[in-house]
Amino acid sequence: MAEREVWGTRIGFILAAVGSAVGLGNIWQFPFKTATFGGAAFLVVYLLAAVAIGLPAMLAEFVIGRRSNLNVVSAFRGLGYRKWRFVGIVGLVTGFWILSYYSVVGGWVIRYLFGSLTGAYFGDPAGYFGTISSGTITVVFQALFMAITVGIVAFGIEDGIEKATKVMVPSIVVLLAGLAVWAATLPGGGEGYRFFLSPDLSDITENWRDIVPFAVSQAFFSLSLGMGAMITYSSYLGADDNLGQDSLSIVAFNTFVGVLAGLVVFPLLFAQGVEPGEGGAGAVFISLAQAFSELPAGRLLGVVFFGVVLIAALSSAISLLEVVTSYVVDNYDVSRPVTASGLGLVLFLLGVPSALDIAVFTWFDAVAYGALLPLSVLLVLVFVGWVLADEALDELRKGTNGIPTLGSVWLWTVRVVVLVAVLGTLVLGVQGLAEDPGLLPPV
Ligand code: PFF
User: Fold this and answer.
1) Ligand 1 pocket, mutate which of 320, 343, 364, 369 (most atoms under 8 A from CB)
2) pLDDT tens digits, residue range 67-91?
3) Is the entire prediction scored with pTM above 0.85?
4) CB contact set of 297 (below 8 Å; sequence gap of 6+)
5) CATH of 10-439, one of 1.10.1060, 1.10.3470, 2.60.40, 1.20.1730
6) Domain ranges of the chain
7) What is the whole-number distance in angstroms between the Cα of residue 294 and the centre of ligand 1?
8) Cα(391) to centroid(ligand 1), Å
9) CA distance readout (Å), 364 to 96, 241, 351
């Protein structure tokens, strides 16, 4: 068995976790789901969910990872609860499921990056999305995205992931902030800010059955919870890290980037007179492409923007692939590069149907949000709150140097409040899926 690596620095861990969290979930899914579910009302519920549910749930994953120093499946055995390994397996399956269609969107991004260089979408931005979003060529770009992801994971924790994310994360913020400032100058964009930032609370009371489960699952997706990613990343941590502080920084930063992306996308949409709820998964791409095609220096802006999105998507995808890779490398005598390549191939094949047919893609996304994400997080919460219990508290208190951690408050929140909220999300999500498996509007 290969010797286990550790993070080179504490900031390396935080940046990698942020790199995992910040991705297509912030820049594409978040504006897309916000637009689908009515704008600012969704934002309010999402922010609440990220802080009140996402943060405690992230701590729960960190506790499992650091205490066991093992991959997501072996962690449960390592902690002495062999029977609970299925929790890790549900996480693995959820991660696999999501990465399969995530890499399809990653492929779209690469395509748009090239499209910006050559100006390919400038004549017909809406039509362009239609031609690139599914079909054989989509499969080729999905494969390309997967291949890059495999390449980075193959180099291992310090050489690959840590170095890559150190560059990726700061550049994402700088570029998005620049674009947000630029978007603020667009005529007609003001309506976009209203849609995004000024909630009509009656929307929440009327549509809570849709808004709540999607907002909670969006928080999980965006914070990389329920997929073993945070368990895996924190398993490379030393005992001197303050988990509470780390998770707070990660949640705050991730939310900031999501809101920043909204501040780019919504003024753009409204400046072009695009109705944000229409257009489904492609709306964000179409509206951005439209903007770049009309703007002076649009090619350059397009390359910069899609370059940033690609970086963000890659730093997330590598964390998902790392989950499974670390499981195999920890347990079997197989090298990292071979493991990463083999798994990349399986993931690629699983994603092919989503690349070929947007209806399949939409269904994968709906199942992840409605069932897999809340189920997976729920199991982690039950395990940490009721099984690991005092051991979890003990782990949380390590590395805090006597700074009060509010550990018991956290534990009881996990045991009761958060657990019930996630259970409710799961019930609503599954009901929603049963009523309408397509859930999301057709693209
Ligand atoms: N959090 C990532 C995003 O918002 O794009 C997506 C993601 C990465 C989900 C890693 C899950 C994961 F394990």
Assistant:
1) 320
2) 999 889 999 999 999 999 999 999 9
3) yes
4) none
5) 1.20.1730
6) 10-439
7) 32
8) 28
9) 11, 36, 10
